[in-house]
Structures are given as C-alpha cells and as structure tokens.
Design a protein that fits this description.
Beta-Lactamase; seven-stranded antiparallel beta sheet
C-alpha cells in the first residue's frame, strides 16, 4: 500500500478502534486491519494475566498454527523482553527457531512485536509475522508502532470505561443494600470482573474491642463461602498495620507462608500474591480488603491504582453497611432488654425471670452458655440458675475461685483462650469453651451485689473484654436492681408472714376445731394457682388471703363461734358478718391489702347466692373464686366433731357437681388438673392427728 494511503488509513483505523468499547471487538478489528494493510501472515494480540500471556485474538494464514486460548508463560518466549523492557522487538530469519516464540510449526521468517503500555504498565503484546524477506523496513516499523499506539489508546479507553461501569455497579449495589449477607455474592462477582483473584477477605476493626478485628471470608477455590464472621487478634494482623499506615500493601511473593493472622483462613491453599487495600472515610479506618492469587506477580500497579480508587469510592458505602449491621445487633440487644423488662413487670418469681433471661440472652447475644448465680444469705452460698438442664450444688462463698472473687469484690473478670469453665470454677470443668466473662449484678441505686452473671463462648477465644462487657451488659443493670428488690421483698414477706401466722395461730387457739385449716387451704390454693399459671403478684395476694380468710372470726362472740349445736337464724346472721369484720381489720395494713379480696369475698357464689355482697360470676375477684374451691375441698375432707371426713375422690365429685353454681368453672378446671397425690399429700400432712408430719406449706408459701 502507498505510504500516504497507509498514514491516511491509520487515522481512520484509530477512530474506529477508539469508538469501540468491547475489548474483543477492538482486538479483532485491529488484527483484520493489520492483515489487510500489510498482507502479513499472522497478527496476534496477547494480554498480560498474572505470570503469563493469554491469546485474545489472531488473524492471518498462520492463525491456525496458534491454538485457541494459547498461553505463553514467562521464560518460554522472547516476548518476555517486550513485556519487561517495554520496547519493540524485531526478529529476522526465525523459521528454524520456533522455540523463541513458544509456538511450534509457525511458518514465518520475520517477526515484529510491540508492547501495549498504559501508564507505564505493560498490559500485553502485539505479535506480527511475515514470510517475506523484505518485511518490516524502517518506515513500516514506524507505521506499525503508531498503529499499536492507537490500539493502546483504544484498549485503555475500553478498560477505563469497563472499570468505570463495574465501579458504578458495585457502588450502586452497596448503596442499595444494608445487609452484607444479601449483596456479597454479587459484590464478589463484580470484583472478579475488575480483577482476577483466588481468595477474598474483608476485615473491619471491632467497634467495641480494640484488640480484635472481625473477618468476613468471602471467596476461596473458585467458589463463594457461606458468610460467617470470625474474630482475630488485632495485634499481629495485617489489618492493624494497614489501617495504621493508611496505604495499600502488596506482596507478590508469599511462597505459601503465613505472615499475618488473616492468612489462617486459607491455610490449605498456597497463595503466592496478596493485595491489601485500606477502606478509609475522613481519614478514619473503617476496614480492609484482602485479595489473594495463586501465582506470583499477579497484581500490577495499574490494578492497584484502579482498586485503590474503587476502595476510596466504596469506603463510605461499606462503612454504612457495617454500621447498619452493628446497629442491628444493638437493636437486638435492646429488644432483648425490652423482652426481659416485660417479664420483670409481670412480677414473676425471681428464678423464673432469670431462666427466661438466660434463654433470651443466649439467643440475642449469640452466647453458648448463660448462668446466673444468686446469693443465699442464710447459707452463704451462690445458687446457679439457667434455662438448661445443668444441676449444680450451691457454690459456697468460702472457696477462692474467680467466680466467688468476682462476687465478693464486685469486679468483672474476663477469660481468653481457655479450654473449659474449670478456669472459672472447678465445678464447671466439664463445660468446654474458649472464652468467658463474669459480671456482677449490682443494684444501680443501693450499689449492692446480690448475684453474678457468667457468660461463655465456645468458638471465639477473644469474645469478651472489660469494655465490651460494660457496653453490652450495662443494659442489664435493671436485672441487678430487680434481684435486689425481690430479695428485700422476700425478706419483708418473711417478716410479714411471721405476723400473719401469729394472727392465724391466735384464731386456731380460739377455734381448735379448725386447727391447721388455714395452712391446708393455703396449700390447696397455691396448687390451683400453679394449675392456672398465676403471676407471682397474684399468688402473693392469694397466699395472704388464704391465710387470713377467717381472721374476722376473732370478732365473733365465743358463744356463737364455739357453739356445739346448730346456730339460730339470728346467730347465723352474726356469723355471716365475719368476712366484713376481717376486711375492716386488715384494710388499713399496707402489706395485707392484697388479702382483702379473699377475706371479704370468699363466701360469694358464682350464681350470686353467696354473702356478704351477693356478687355473681366474674364480678367475684379471681383470688376469692380460687379460694372458695380450696376452702370447700378442705371442709369436705376434714373431720369435725359434728361430721366425719369424706374421701378425696368424693370431694372432687362434689366440686365438679357445683361447677357453674357455687364455683367458677375455669377455676374448677384448673383444680381438676392437680394430681391426686398432691391433694393427698396436703390433706395428710396438715391433719390434726399428724403433728409430726413435714411442713408442706413450705412448698407453696
């Protein structure tokens, strides 16, 4: 072709190449034009991938001599010089030396090769071959060098456009999702479109534990990994070094060795190259990306620059996703606290509350073991409470274990890299864990410690620190206050119970025929309360009311109360006033206010035919409806001077027959679920003729 025509066609070719965005189209168009203009026998384009050149396109009469997807490894061809020295290469009379190109049976005499260089970084090489002896004269080489430069511009333009599209896609992906679990498969695939790698890891500094980093291994062995965060020590990690320097780290010759903790995730794979990029926002480190490759010198400076730009763009988005995930964890913790708080408001038994709290904390805080230990002032021991099936004897305060030390000194203790909970207390040695923490449960107002919390993790050897315990468990300070309140409440109840028992003892002395009746009806009432799943507050009201139900009889004249025969109509009217007398006696006593329902209404009937108010149905307080069954059952099964005791089975039938008339049906249904052995135990243990029997009321009062 005429020289002028060649340079004119160069302008046209350059415009056509630059107008293309698809790399494969650019390579194909370039090779076609080279063959058309110069009538060469071969034109091939190889691109640089790691430690090898990979064929992208070839044209000419000799194209079939080069296999499709042909690769040339470094050291196999003189094309190495073109790549490493970044200069053109002209070889003459190479027919008998095919090994120079790493291609057998290539029938060309002369060869011209030129590098594709972008920003001083070799991206690939163009190889043009001819069987003509006069090929590649100086002006022809100048023309070919110019057209290769046009190819380089087009390739750079295409790569930049492609990378920009990928970056925008990644940014859009991360910006539109808050959960890393949802986006990481697409994130990995898009990153692989940007740069090839064999392993990928994202690390972030732990927001609460300065000595830890959180790791998300995402990709290994050409497949996505199940997203699961793990924890590593910050000291000795590449992440800590990376974030301190705020600059990328590139190692293209790992030789399979483990330099940092991060590599422990890929210990079964021999990686040769790793590129680490910081994720920073406003000069504050928010994380790091680690890319691994199985071959040496896999990552070049151009890729480093592109990925660094992407990291800068992604940093605020990744930080947003990470912050959202931690906010979600905080929301879970608050939800847990709210859930526990709702149960506290229901005034349940303290051990039930702690069992519920143990189960809830394991779920929301992802803990393997949660144990509460509560102080027993009488025995000077700590009792273990949890929702699982572990049974342990009380822990005496006289031993010198860390568990007792934490309680006595009001001090949070943490344990790292341990084999089992024997490090905490010898009684817990059978529980294998890797880390644990003991946190005192202190009343925020009185600053009094009444128990401790023991938490443990089986997988993470560095789960707990002083700072993380303060942040995570300060939300549970209400438990310490609740425990202290319940303990003081129990102490007050014991004192009040002694007063009430003194009153009932006085009544029993006055009316010896009903001696033991008050304690038995308390036990029956508590058994029904258990069957109906009453709250602790409702149980307390019922307990006091059952003990004091007949306290008004103290105001009944002895001539009527102790009369052996049948009462006259006038006498019976006086006797029927004992509920109101009892109510007047206790209504001004604060701790007995809950007992008034039973004292005043225990002779009401569900059909409205009772006394003193003639209430009907659910207008009768629940405690009084329950007690009415307990009172009647004890009266039927107890012996009196004027009647014999009837069998328990007969009393049950009477209660059933009176359901809906005298007694509340729902309360009767609860009563009928009580096992016979419980009813017999209460009846026999409280009989007048069995004074040496065990005090059954301790089970229910």
């Amino acid at each position: 072709m005429d020289c002028n025509l060649k340079w004119q066609s160069l302008y046209q070719i350059a415009n056509r190449l630059v107008s293309q965005y698809d790399l494969q189209e650019i390579f194909s168009m370039f090779n076609q034009e080279i063959i058309r203009i110069g009538q060469y026998d071969l034109c091939a384009v190889y691109m640089y991938e790691g430690e090898k050149l990979v064929l992208k396109d070839r044209k000419g009469t000799q194209q079939r001599q080069i296999p499709e997807n042909h690769t040339i490894h470094f050291g196999e061809s003189v094309l190495d010089e073109v790549i490493h020295e970044k200069r053109t290469l002209l070889l003459k009379e190479i027919t008998d030396q095919p090994s120079l190109l790493g291609i057998d049976q290539l029938a060309i005499l002369n060869l011209f090769a030129a590098p594709i260089i972008i920003h001083e970084q070799s991206y690939g090489v163009v190889m043009i071959g001819s069987s003509k002896e006069t090929a590649f004269l100086p002006d022809e080489i100048q023309f070919l060098t110019s057209i290769v430069q046009s190819l380089t511009i087009a390739v750079n333009h295409s790569i930049q456009f492609r990378h920009l599209m990928i970056q925008n896609k990644i940014s859009s992906l991360v910006a539109s999702h808050r959960n890393l679990t949802e986006i990481y498969p697409q994130l990995v695939n898009e990153l692989k479109n940007l740069v090839q790698f064999d392993g990928l890891l994202i690390t972030i500094p732990h927001p609460y534990r300065e000595e830890e980093i959180i790791c998300y291994p995402l990709y290994l062995n050409h497949q996505l990994l199940v997203l699961k965060k793990s924890f590593l020590p910050a000291k000795g990690s590449a992440t800590k070094k990376l974030l301190e320097s705020n600059s990328y780290m590139l190692d293209n010759q790992l030789n399979g060795s483990i330099h940092y903790y991060e590599e422990s995730f890929f210990c079964n794979v021999c990686f040769q190259s790793v590129l680490r990029l910081p994720l920073t926002l406003h000069n504050k480190p928010v994380g790091a990306i680690h890319l691994y490759a199985e071959d040496c010198h896999h990552f070049n400076q151009t890729q480093v620059k592109q990925l660094n730009n992407l990291a800068v763009q992604l940093s605020p988005l990744i930080e947003h996703v990470i912050r959202y995930n931690f906010e979600e964890q905080k929301r879970k913790a608050k939800k847990m606290v709210k859930y526990i708080g709702e149960h506290l408001l229901r005034d349940r038994d303290i051990e039930e509350i702690l069992r519920i709290s143990s189960k809830v904390m394991e779920r929301y805080l992802e803990l393997d073991h949660v144990f509460f230990f509560i102080m027993n002032d009488e025995e000077l021991t700590l009792k273990m409470i949890n929702h699982q099936t572990y049974e342990m004897p009380p822990f005496p305060l006289t031993d010198h274990s860390p568990l007792i030390t934490s309680f006595i000194q009001n001090k949070t203790l943490t344990f790292h890299s341990i084999a089992d909970l024997g490090e905490v207390h010898s009684n817990l040695k059978q529980l294998q864990v890797q880390s644990a923490a003991i946190i005192p449960l202190m009343d925020a107002i009185e600053r009094r410690v009444n128990g401790i919390l023991l938490v443990a993790d089986k997988k993470n050897r560095n789960r707990f620190t002083q700072k993380s315990c303060e942040i995570n468990f300060q939300l549970l300070s209400q438990l310490g206050t609740y425990i202290n309140r319940k303990i003081k409440q129990k102490e007050l109840e014991r004192s009040n119970l002694a007063i009430v028992k003194a009153l009932t003892a006085a009544l029993d002395k006055k009316d010896s025929e009903t001696e033991g009746h008050s304690e038995r009806v308390v036990a029956y009432s508590m058994a029904i309360a258990d069957a109906l799943h009453l709250s602790e507050g409702e149980r307390t009201k019922l307990r006091w009311g059952a003990l004091l139900h007949d306290i008004g009889k103290i105001g009944i004249p002895d001539a009527i109360l102790l009369k052996p025969g049948k009462l006259t109509k006038e006498e019976w009217e006086i006797m029927k006033k004992h509920p109101e007398i009892g109510f007047d006696m206790i209504k001004g006593i604060e701790f007995l206010e809950g007992a008034t329902d039973v004292v005043l209404y225990h002779h009401e009937r569900i059909d409205g035919k009772g006394y003193p108010m003639g209430l009907k149905g659910n207008d009768i307080p629940l405690a009084a409806r329950i007690f009415a069954i307990a009172d009647a059952f004890d009266a039927i099964t107890s012996e009196r001077p004027y009647k014999r005791a009837l069998p328990v089975e007969h009393a049950i039938e009477v209660i059933k027959e009176c359901s809906g008339s005298q007694f509340c049906p729902s309360c009767v249904n609860g009563f009928l679920t009580i096992p016979l052995e419980i009813l017999y135990e209460i009846k026999d243990s409280g009989s007048q003729n069995n004074q040496s029997s065990k005090p059954f009321t301790k089970l229910y009062i």
